[in-house]
Structure to design on (104 residues):
């Protein structure tokens, strides 16, 4: 997995503000219109995590979720309408109309 420079900068800023968390976690869970969705939150490394870095920014992915996001890039957008972290996932076959869930 790759972390864009913009996402890395945002992760570092959030971690500095958050306290005990030291990275960003991406999980894939069941839900949404298409069946799968991302859960993104600040967290700490857990046993078995795959850890990806860009400078001092860390991204944690559990083993099950990694099966769905392998090869993805995490980016950050600060647009007024669509601000937030974005997962550019080459494994997605289709997504729902609102873009919140997907199928691999």
């Amino acid at each position: 997995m790759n972390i864009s420079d913009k996402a890395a900068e945002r992760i570092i800023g959030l971690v500095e503000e958050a306290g005990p968390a030291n990275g960003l976690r991406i999980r894939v869970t069941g839900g949404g219109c298409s069946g799968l969705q991302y859960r993104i939150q600040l967290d700490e490394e857990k046993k078995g995590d795959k850890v990806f870095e860009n400078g001092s920014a860390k991204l944690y992915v559990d083993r099950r979720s990694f099966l769905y996001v392998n090869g993805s890039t995490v980016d950050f957008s600060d647009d007024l309408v669509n601000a937030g972290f974005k997962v550019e996932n080459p494994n997605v076959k289709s997504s729902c109309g609102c873009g919140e869930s997907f199928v691999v």
Observations:
- The first strand starts at residue 2 and ends at 3.
